[in-house]
Design brief:
The complex is a heterodimer of chains A (about 450) and B (about 120).
Chain A: H1 3-8, H2 14-35, H3 37-54, H4 58-73, H5 105-126, H6 129-174, H7 177-253, H8 259-357, H9 360-390, H10 401-411, H11 415-425, E1 438-440
Helix pairs in contact in A: 2-3, 2-9, 2-11, 3-4, 3-5, 5-9, 6-8, 6-9, 7-8, 9-10
Chain B: E1 4-8, H1 12-24, E2 28-32, H2 35-43, E3 50-54, H3 62-70, E4 80-84, H4 89-98, E5 102-105, H5 110-120
Parallel strand pairs in B: 1-2, 1-3, 3-4, 4-5
Chain lengths: ~450, ~120
């Protein structure tokens, strides 16, 4: 009798045979997903031994278990193995009640052999308990590590978001319309004051120059008048000279009686010559004065006024350029602020999405919790098998995995978990309808 | 004045994520790490405009929390959303019967969550 027939004949129901194999497969899938190929070999061995003890996929699993056992004990594959389970004698038909069956000495011996070997097998399975414990701890550490990483990421994103907010606030405060208007107004007032000062200065300067010119013109007029008076003096001097000449002639004609008069006439002539010379000298000095006044007027009006006007024009141009530069600066600042606001608004979306995406860690944590629960189910099952072997009701009782699997199924919190469970344990790929992700009642 | 949203979840990551999303959107956030803590906070005078709770938490799950909150004076009509990885219709019906306003499956898109909140909280 084959071992499968033995188990089937020993009240192991069909679901109890298939379901453990499904648990084993799910355990392998979960462990592979969580920890990769390194642990997969152990998981496969565990799955195979589970399947063997419960009857599913018996032949293949049994072969793997035998090969594994031989390797562990250093028995060559082609060497005879006295402990090989396949070489055991057949067990009596368990479908017949024990009390009714005739138990021979040979059957009792076979029972003991099988019991011993299966006990050893279950003990071997128990070796994997530390592996399961490692898996649980790894799952726990992965959960903690991802939680720390997620916390760190969210914290970093919030810091970035806060810094951007503070930067925007600063730019907004420093570049607000009121602030800019205030700066522009103050500058405009200052520039207008400068323009007014320049205008007033120019006005006063023009008035001073006009006054100076008027004074110079007045001097020239007076000089001309003095010149005219000098001309009169020269005329009088020339006429006096003529009179003196006439007086001298008349004195000569008077003879001796005119000698005294001739002296007077000569003195008058001399005086007229001196008057002429003095008038000429005054006229020459007046001419010099007239030239000096004209030169001053030329310097004052033409050169100095023009140079001052040019300088003040340069200042006015500089002030206008300063105003234009200020306006350009304000415009540029507003454009920069608008650009920063625009960029930060565009950045807000991705930051919000990233903060939201951290929810993946909670989903991962819950999945890992179920991987842990899965290992516990396997662990409990190993304990059950040992209990069954040592139980008073015989060593081949069906082990109730169905209840545990139902419990496992009920504990799932995601449709994807239930879908995977169905795919593995029920060999069907029906996808559960997850419904709307957001539903308002 | 900013509206206050109470978030209840036993996962620190979820609390941080929700807090980050809601704060950035201009809401004040009141956190609770369990149903019991949330209930104590509400009994202590917290007046949130909305409660968003996880389903699977320690001793008191989200449905029980909603049931308890609905019994508090003044909380009969406060919007209460269930935010869970669970999507089973049976659980949704249970939450609806307990007084939940809506059901949202994790992970939730931030924009979608904010749209729902603004729809349910006047002036948000």
């Amino acid at each position: 009798m084959s071992v499968a027939a033995l188990l089937i004949g020993s009240r192991v129901t069909v679901p109890a045979v298939i379901v453990p194999a499904m648990v084993a497969s799910l355990a392998v899938a979960a462990v592979r997903a969580a920890f990769g190929d390194a642990v997969e070999e152990l998981a496969v061995s565990l799955a195979v031994t589970l399947a063997v003890t419960t009857g599913a996929t018996l032949a293949a699993a049994w072969a793997v278990a035998r090969a594994s056992d031989r390797r562990r004990r250093g028995v060559p594959a082609d060497a005879p193995d006295p402990t090989d389970l396949a070489e055991l004698p057949e067990l009596p038909d368990r479908s017949v009640p024990a009390t009714a069956a005739a138990t021979t000495g040979g059957e009792a011996s076979a029972d003991q052999d099988w019991h011993g070997r299966l006990t050893r097998l279950v003990d071997e399975i128990a070796v994997y308990r530390p592996v399961l414990e490692v898996i649980r701890r790894e799952a726990s550490e992965v959960s903690e590590d991802t939680e720390q990483a997620a916390t760190s990421i969210v914290s970093g994103l919030q810091t970035v978001d806060r810094e951007i907010g503070e930067l925007l606030g600063f730019l907004d405060r420093s570049s607000s319309n009121e602030k800019v208007v205030e700066i522009v107004d103050r500058t405009e007032r200052s520039l207008a004051g400068s323009r007014r000062l320049i205008h007033d200065f120019l006005g006063r300067r023009n008035a001073d120059i006009e006054d100076s010119r008027n004074r110079l013109v007045a001097i020239a007029t007076v000089t001309d008048e003095v010149g005219a008076a000098v001309q009169n003096i020269r005329t009088i001097a020339r006429q006096t000279n003529v009179l003196a000449l006439n007086a001298t002639i008349e004195a000569a004609r008077a003879g001796e009686a005119g000698k005294g008069f001739a002296v007077v006439a000569r003195e008058v002539k001399e005086l007229s010559h001196q008057s002429e010379a003095t008038a000429t000298e005054i006229d020459r000095r007046l001419d010099d004065l007239r030239k000096a006044v004209g030169a001053s007027l030329s310097v004052l009006v033409e050169d100095r006024i023009e140079s001052e006007r040019a300088a003040l024009g340069t200042i006015a141009t500089a002030i206008s350029e300063l105003t234009e530069s200020l306006e350009r600066l304000v415009t540029h600042q507003r454009e920069v602020l608008a650009k920063v606001v625009d960029e930060s608004t565009r950045l807000a979306g991705p930051i919000m999405t990233l903060i939201g995406s951290i929810q993946f860690q909670d989903c991962t944590r819950q999945r890992l919790q179920h991987v842990t629960r899965l290992t516990e189910v396997v662990d409990e099952h190993v304990s059950d098998m040992r209990r069954v072997l040592d139980g008073p009701d015989g060593w081949i009782d069906p082990v109730d995995l169905t209840g545990r699997l139902d419990e496992l199924m009920a504990g799932y919190v995601m449709a994807s978990q239930r879908n995977t469970h169905r795919e593995v344990f029920e060999s069907r790929s029906r996808q559960e309808d997850v419904g709307a992700r957001i539903e308002l009642f | 004045m900013a509206k206050t949203i109470m978030i209840v979840d036993d996962s620190p990551t979820m609390l941080m994520s929700l807090d980050g999303m809601l704060s950035k959107a201009g809401f004040a956030v009141n956190q609770a790490k369990s149903g019991e803590e949330a209930l104590a906070s509400l009994r202590g005078g917290a007046r949130p405009s909305m409660v968003i709770t996880d389903l699977n938490m320690g001793a008191m799950d989200g449905i029980e929390l909603i049931r308890s909150v609905r019994k508090l004076p003044g909380y009969q009509f406060v919007p209460m959303l269930m935010l869970s990885t669970e999507s089973q219709q049976a659980k949704r019906h249970e939450a609806k019967a307990a007084g939940a306003t809506g059901w949202i499956v994790k992970p939730v898109d931030p924009a979608a969550l904010l749209q729902v909140i603004r729809q349910l909280v006047p002036g948000a």
